[in-house]
From TrEMBL:
Its cofactor is pyridoxal 5'-phosphate. It comes from Bifidobacterium avesanii. This is Alpha-1,4 glucan phosphorylase. Keywords: Carbohydrate metabolism, Glycosyltransferase, Pyridoxal phosphate, Transferase. GO terms for cellular component: cytoplasm. PANTHER family: GLYCOGEN PHOSPHORYLASE (PTHR11468), GLYCOGEN PHOSPHORYLASE, LIVER FORM (PTHR11468:SF3). The lineage of its organism: Bacteria, Bacillati, Actinomycetota, Actinomycetes, Bifidobacteriales. Allosteric enzyme that catalyzes the rate-limiting step in glycogen catabolism, the phosphorolytic cleavage of glycogen to produce glucose-1-phosphate, and plays a central role in maintaining cellular and organismal glucose homeostasis. One of its GO terms (biological process) is glycogen catabolic process. GO terms for molecular function: glycogen phosphorylase activity; pyridoxal phosphate binding.
Amino acid sequence: MTEITAPKSPVTTAEFADGIREQLKYGQGVTPEQATPADVYVASSLVVRHYLQDAWFKTQQDMVNGKTKAVGYLSAEFLIGKQLRNALLNAGMLDQFDEAVESLGFDPQTVVDAEYEPALGNGGLGRLAACYVDSLASLGVPAFGYGIQYRYGIFRQEFDSEGRQVEKPEYWLANEEPWGHVDYNRSQKVSFGGTVVEENGRKVWKPAWSVRAVPVDYMVPGYASGRVDTLRLWSARSYDEFDLLTFNKSEYLDAVKPKVEAENISKILYPEDSTPQGKRLRLEQQYFFVAASIQDVIRVFYPGQSNPDLTTLPDKITFQLNDTHPVIGIPELMRVLIDEYGYDWATAWDITTKTFNYTCHTLLPEALEVWPADLIGELLPRHLEIINEINDHFLEELKGKTRDKEKIERMRIVTNEENPKVRMAYLATAGGSHVNGVAELHSQLLKDVTLRDFSDLYPDKFTNVTNGVTPRRFIRLANPRLSNLITEGLGTDKWLSDLEMLKGLEPLAKDDEFVKKFAAVKQANKEDFAAYAKREYGFELDPNTMFNSMIKRLHEYKRQSLKILALIAKYADIKSGKVSVDDVLPRTVIFGAKSAPGYYLAKMTIQLINNVARVVNNDPDIKGKLHVYYPWNYNVRLAQHLIPATDLDEQISQAGKEASGTGNMKFALNGALTVGTLDGANVEIRERVGAENFFLFGMTVDEVDALYAQGYHPAVYYERDPRLKAAIDMVADGTFSNGDRNTYAPLVADWLTKDWFMTLADFTAYCDIQGEIEALYRDPLEWNRKALLNVANSGYFSSDRAIQDYLDKIWHTGPLA
Ligand code: 73E
């Protein structure tokens, strides 16, 4: 007997079908006969929203009226992915939807496919925010996700005929979007620029211009919790259609300029992951969404009160700053408290520091945001004053804690130089209660290196919350076959809200019959993916080869170069006859990655991968043993298809550079084995799944540091390993550029003379471990046993556990009563 705990549908199939008909008629204005799959998609989404409405109201009412502190997750990115199936799953209506749609003569998959993916994030950080709101709702915790409804999400990636990345605008709102409810009546005013004057001994900010922040609300239904939280994404609108003054002077085109400029604020997501550009518009975006969110929270929690007691704010809500992007919220809350509600500095600071917490997501120094004070002063003159004052108070406080003057100098929030800068990570650390990293190793390095002075003087502020991913989207929706097998193995489907239960699968790894079923699931998923890749990209994947995936942003530290060089080395070995093609394990390597548009070496790496694919896939000497595919425009949808079909996952960043990684968790949970370095969450994944079930290679953080210290000379490694030499020579000699030796010259020069992330130093270890991997893969039962043990022991990496950690260690709140 299988125990079923999945949520019960609030609606019958017949009611669902009636709902669709009604929405088609009054919403879309079409008959079922006229309707397209896109119409049925919109209508179905509205039916789902209809049935979630009461739970949404109740969650909000209980949040405002009850005593449970809410969570405000402030994030510049929410990479939510497609909504319909996720909402159906969480609300328990999957079957009713399928049957209702079929009864109207439509194919459910085609209807679901009509949804356009909202791509409002760059990568892991944005996807994490989306997983976290899912888990907050599923745990029944009252919460808001606050962010920006960009009109253009992350660019759509195409490849040109040379294999180079081309960025195309991603205008995802071109079609009707039924999930976001635009709430014009609850808009907020956000102001910029101008000057600060003194009036009656008080500072008064006289801004130069304002925009209207219009909330667009997305329901976030919890899985089987009966709760629906809110993702509130702000859209920038102009107040004045026309500047009347200018218009009256009949300068018609100039008159609409302010409108265009105001609306630019939420127009586009910056496509840089981990390399912020310090652009004025980005600061405008950051202030825009946090200022609107703070006003919104006061509106929601102190309704109709002109003189609210804001000393209770930290009991009503706790704000989590998702990286430094929303940190301008700290001086903004100070400003609101002091200038608008008349609190004194000390009281305002007490409220502010109790309300904010900060998650750091990086170790790369270039990713820690630093803003020129001048720029802040221009856009937010009052905030600059407040930041300077925070800095002064902070330096005073430090004097009471240490006599080390250099340390105090190093800890300045505002640097002491001709053109001072504001260090947002320091502001966040000083202005909040807790600072956390996103994996054990990362949190340790934050304390030891990046924020060392702070952790010396404020050790209690620092903690770790290892990232997690939602099992609803990334197991249940992405991998229904595996989900059914897990439920069969455990005798219950309860694991979907208590993922540590996967541990119960561990004994089944000894049961060959179960392992074979598990292997059959993977095989079927590979066949599905091959069909999908054929349909979407025209690729011909052979599901009887090992599927080896590397999907993540293209970045030097992630070392796609290492993967492609090892692959080229294998190709070179076959071409030179060192290795007989008949002995090669058939393997399909799949890359998915976007590069920041201005990132020269990353873009060249993309071009190289595409051209290696072209050459290798078409070389008859290879006899189809090696295939390389690079599906363009990697996104959440592609991840959901590819992860369940992957045998081997690559997490090969230089140790000490990947803060956590979350793809690694999704792969382990879907029964892929990982080849990886001791970096980010790999460390914890390996600890849990067992060293014998993880392919570890490469230098450790300490070895990397020692090598930097001693002086790193990549050419030494090139000379030492003939496989590496052959691979780099092949890139240099034009094999992958139709004989042109210049195409990849900058990349080759970088490898041989700089190689900042030590790809060459780890190359030999990487190739050696691939030998072990191939030996194991030739034994399918053993391979799948290990893969199953990965699933059984990865339950810890649920975002439900991560959110529970935030609740216990940082937020000190919990579910609504
Ligand atoms: O290691 C990942 C981590 O798993 C890290 O690189 C990523 O965040 C993930 C979730 O914790 C990340 N993204 C950014 N910084 N760290 C970032 C920075 C600026 C803009 C956009 C994204």
